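pinned: reference chain
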Amino acid sequence: MTASSTRRTTAAHSRLAAVGAIAVAGALILTGCGDQTDKSSDSSTSDSSASSAPLASKLPADIRKAGVIKVGSDIAYPPVEFMQSGKAVGIDPDVADALGKQLGVKFDFQNGKFAQLIVGLQSNRFNVIMSAMNDTKDRQSGIDSDSGKKVGNGIDFVDYFTAGTSILVQKGNPKGIKSLDDLCGKTVALQQGTTSEGIAQKQSKKCTKDGKKAISLQTFDTDPEALLRLKQGASVADLNDFPVAAYNAKTSGGGNDFEVVGEQIEAGPYGIGVSKENTQLRDALQAAMNAIIKNGEYTKIMEKWNVTDGAVTEAKINGGS
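pinned: its C-alpha cells
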C-alpha cells in the first residue's frame, strides 16, 4: 500500500457569452480561486498520508522515495506464502501489508528459489527476504551449515514468528513413522536450502553413528515437488515447518493425502532477512512489527491463518540460535 494518493480534480467551466469586461474579469477571478482550492487540497492529502504512515520517517530515504520494499520470497509454501489468482497471499504477505501501513510503502513480493534468496539479497536484487526463513546463527554469520565454512557476510533478521520442523507422512502413516529415528535407511523428500534439510542431514549422521543406515535424501527447489514424491510413495516423509505441514495435511486431497506425526523439532524464529549494511531498514521494520503487535493487527493475521501457536509478543533482532 502506498503512503500517498493522487487526487484528481476536474474543474468545470461554463461557457458564457462575453457581454463585457466585467464578466470576463469575474470568470478569471473564479478560475484563480479554483486553482488555490486545488493546492490546498493537495496539501491536505499529503498531511493525511503522513499521519496514516506514522513510521515512514524511519525508512532510508531512497526506499521512502521509491515507495516500495522489494521482497525476495519462494512463493510456494502455503500458508506462509503462495500464489492465488496471480497474487501472493498468506501469512507473510498479510504481515507485509500491515507493515506497509506503518511505513507508508508497498511490499512487492518477487518469486525466487529459496536456496538463492540470500544471494539475491546480498546482490541487491531485493531489499528484504520474507519466506518462512528461520533466523539461525549460521545465516547471521554467513556460515554454510554443511561445510561449516564462511561463504558470505551473513544477514540480519527481524524475528516475527516461531516454528519448528514437522514430519509429514502419507495419510494413515503406512510406514509407521513416529520420529526422526524412524527415518534411518529410508527415503525422505524435502526442499533444499531449508532448516529441514539441515535437520535431516544431522539425523542421517546420527543414524550411521548408531549403526543404522543413513537417510536417503531427495532435495528439490520447491516444497510442492517434495510433497508430490511423498504422495506418490517415492519417499516416506517430507520435513517442513509446522504451519506448512499442518496446512498440507488439512487441505491436500481434501485432507486425505497427508498427516503430521510426532512433535515439532527444533522450534525457532522466522525472521525478515535484511542486509547487515542496511541497519536503518532493519530497525524500521522492527519498529513497524512491534507497532502491529501492539495495535492488534498481527494477532488478527495469526488468527486468520490459524497459527496463533507461533505468534510472538515482541519483534527481536537476531534472536535465533
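why pinned: Residues 138 and 320 are 9 Å apart (CA to CA). The mean pLDDT is 86.
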